[in-house]
Amino acid sequence: MRISLQAELGDFQDRHTIYVFARKMSFLAVTLSSVVILLILPPLDWMGVLPVPLADGVVYGVVLSWLIGGAVSSVLSVAGHAMHQLSVSRAEFEQLSRTDVLSGLLNRRAFTEALERADGDACLAIFDVDRFKAINDRFGHACGDAVIVAVSAILAAAFDGRSVAARLGGEEFGAIVVGGSQAQRIEKVQSVCARLAEKPIAADNCVVAITVSAGIAELGGGRGKAGAYSAADKTLYLAKALGRNRVVHENEGLHPGWRRHLPQDAAAARAMSADCDEARLA
């Protein structure tokens, strides 16, 4: 019989594993003790140094074996329970370190790690709640938090499975949309923005109608993740500059027809930039 004595810390996140492991080790201790006693007792009896009859010695040996097995099981159960608590605490800490507390989505750190692993048929979408600072100023931060929670719930439901969503900070969110064609990924982002715009959010004695702007950049194709993030951020800015409540893909951002919608003078450009910056810092 072969029983592995190797136990990894991750195996002890389940209490059942602890007791199974302890029973296995107890059985092994009983078996080894019994074998040792049965091998030692006959020679001792033959040499006349066994203080009791051989039959009684065998009985005492079996009892001793079970006592040893019980002791081993108890020690392993206590040690396993301690390892279980340590493992659970470690897993919870790791989960907290990767999760945004308010939204329940991945935080920026975890999203960056997911972005580094993403490749192939995928795109990066950055969302920003339009005029979020005005919501906080008018209705209060409790209502602003309710908006963040509501937006997060819709993003989490829309981007599950291979796709992931995260809160990047403030009212800015990110999503890695995996699978499908480029047109299908764009359509999915557009549908999420449309869903957010069509249903007002009720919280803290206020009802808030929101819109969301989004910028999309494709992943893969030999471009670095930093370049893709920068492209998505620029298209988000363009969506804001074009009047908000829209989705802009990086390919659309190159279209000459969009330029006439941008601020024509420096003062207007600075105002637009300040407005976007305030929204992101709200």
Automatic annotation (TrEMBL):
EC number(s) reported in the record: 2.7.7.65
Enzyme kind, highest EC tier: transferase
Plastid in keyword set: no
Keywords of this entry: Membrane, Transmembrane, Transmembrane helix
Start and end residues of each GGDEF domain: 120-252
TM spans (from-to): 25-46, 58-80
Annotated CDD domains: GGDEF
Any one biological process term the GO annotation gives: negative regulation of bacterial-type flagellum-dependent cell motility
A Gene Ontology cellular-component term: plasma membrane
Gene3D superfamilies tied to this protein: 3.30.70.270
Keyword Disulfide bond set for record: no
SMART domains to which the protein is assigned, alphabetical: GGDEF (SM00267)
Gene Ontology terms, MF aspect: diguanylate cyclase activity
Protein known as: diguanylate cyclase
Originating species: Rhizobium favelukesii
